[in-house]
Amino acid sequence: MDRTQGQAEPVEQPTAASAPPAAASEAAGPAASGSAPAPVARIVTLTAGDFTLTVNPVDGSEIEPRRPGTGAAVPVKRDAADRSARDAAARPPVLPGPAAPAPPLLAREEERERLVRLLGRGRSVRLTGPAGSGRSALLDAVAADCTGLAPDGVVRLSGYGHQQPGELLHALYAAVYQASAERPERTQLLARVRDIGAIVLLDDLEMGGTALDELLRATPECAYLLAATPDTRAPSDDSHLEEVFLGGLGRADCVELLEAGTGRPLTEEETAWAGDLRFASEGLPLRFVQAAALLRQRDERNLSCAEDDDDEPGVFEERPRDAAFVALPTLAEGAAPAELLASRVSESARAALRIACALGGEMPHHAHLPALVGDTHADAAVAELLGCGLLTPVGTRYRLAAGVARQLEEAGFGDTAAEEARTAARHYAWWTGHASVTPERVASEADAVLAALAGADVVAAVLLARTAAPAFAASRHWEAWERVLRSGAEAARKAGEVAEQAYFHHELGVLALCEGRLDRARAELEASIGLKGALADKRGTVAGRRALALVTDREKAGVEVSPPLRLEPPAAASEAVTTAVPAVRAPKTVPKTAPAAPVAAVTPVTPVVPVIGRAAAPTTLSEVFEEAFPLDPKPAVVAAPAVPAPVRAAQPRRKPVLLAAAGALTVVVLGTVVSLAMSGSDSGTPADGVGPAVSSTPTAGTTGGAGVPGTGGNDPAPDPGTTAPDASDPAAPEPGLSPDPNQSSRAPSRKPSTGPTPPSRTPSTTNPTPPSTPTSPGPKPTPSTDPTTQAPPTTPPPTTGPVGSPSST
Hints:
It is built from 29 helices and 14 strands. By secondary structure, it is of the alpha/beta class. It has a five-stranded parallel beta sheet with strand order 6-9-10-5-11, with helices on both faces. The chain has a four-stranded mixed beta sheet with strand order 3-2-1-8. A three-stranded antiparallel beta sheet has the order 12-14-13. Helix 5 packs parallel to helix 7 (210-218). The N and C termini lie far apart (126 Å).
């Protein structure tokens, strides 16, 4: 058979016992079905809670409210015959060729009796053991002993790849109830699984903690036997699970297991080697199954079988009889035997190992190997690898045993992983889209399909996701459906396939609507509608808007929605709004005659974000965002009529601040008026009000005679050492009324201050030396103009009389 085209050859068809009826023709290739009709679209109608879901692979799924009287009938439980048939279908597939003998279950009688006794009492048990310790074999023996103990029988489930209990509950519901076209919503599911009374054997458990508690609480009438590895998350203290640890085998048991695997007694050298191997591997049964395969391969190479010693070498033998003697494997080869075992198997088995390495350890169904490998007899490779201990059963399929994938990758079996994954993706894309393949058959290959989808290129990934998604939806395996849709949407985005990307977003929105996640459903459907609108896809846009209308109706009906993102408010939130006042800085320079006023210590206040009160808690993400980050300014909260104690204490401090600011402003205005009056009283003084005389800073003296007024405005300023005029001179302004030269051109600061106003200072009897005026109008260091830091005036402002009354005196 050609590997890529899949052209069939006249080969022997497998028997009914070696493969399922449909699997033999499904995996052979596109032309293997002969005159089979062309693939057609599989349209499946399901009941999902209150909705009727029509899975349409061509145009996308359609969802509508379930009409009254059109829902599925009340599901009934399976009888004993149905449970037996389903258990047989849940086992790993029967391999072609003679059945290999199963390894015996040794040294497990005590654990077996204890587990049966606890399960018969209704207790749940957690069986913990390392990978390769024989947990699955012990579960098979316990299942045979517990038949008939529970009303709903024994249910075998696989927890591989399940981190949440939802999908496991649906699998338990499908195993007990006959409901082929219904997937109940969560409320209906919990109500129905509560009535299940069965012994559930859950192998390869991967969850613990609260997730495991939820599974146990949902099924109070079930007794669980949970098989897990030591690194699995432990259950909570409230689970009340019995713990049973499964250790390794003893020396005698290991030797007995080797003899059963080789079919002959061991020699002294082999017995000693088995003892060393038992110490290195801690007695794990899987290591001795692999060691028995090494010994069988050694016997075949050395031709040490008794029936071959008496025969003469034949001319048609594949290898010469005088081959070199093959010694016992080393201890390292016995502890990690995957590379040595793989080198001695057939070429088809090695090709199957390469495919399993490319698929993350998943081995495809043996009916797919002829098309994947290119050998018509490659379906026998699974039985060969299983006899060597390189494969282990997991649910209804096979995987590489623990540690085998890593050893094979180190040996170079993973070098062609990209090519093998691409070939598997193209094969599964054809197979999942074929009309003869049932959705249940696709669901059984879900892990291999998902692994091929993860390793394929974007073109093959889009094609595989497009054909596999409707099959997973029809089989009610919705966890795999969601994973395929998300992988397909990402691959379509990278490949630039806008139409396929719109399809995947639409399916994700329908899935979220069926599961009650309304926020996610709205986001996915809106994205799909936008993409379909860009493509002018009227039919797809109408289907998307219908689904979006259902989302709106569910939201308006008050249906419980998925919890939105919660934004926590600040810890110090309060209804009162406090204004933050910055700390006051002291001036850089202070005159010698005017001591600096004490600076009030101001404690920085942290701004408080107002909280918007709501009558009800927000239910959507937009309301939560609006609550935390309001777009419009909210009105200030009206305080109560009664003033609280802290506010009354702060009121007396506000009045001195306002009085100080008013006083400073009055001093500036009064000084300006006095300067203008003095300059205008002398008739001989030229009018220079437009020039520098506009400044309110008066001159300290003249260059003419002492005390001679009337100096011109262009005369130079006095030297820094010039003595100031006498305070009794009526023409000289009072020192208390002289403002700062740099303060007259600026308005006083209006910043409020929380500190008290310093008291007024009495006028000094001595003549203070005013600061000298520079000759150039350049900038000069200006002290702070904050009212709280400036020295108060020596003369209080008049309260009565005309403004110019001080100059007239």
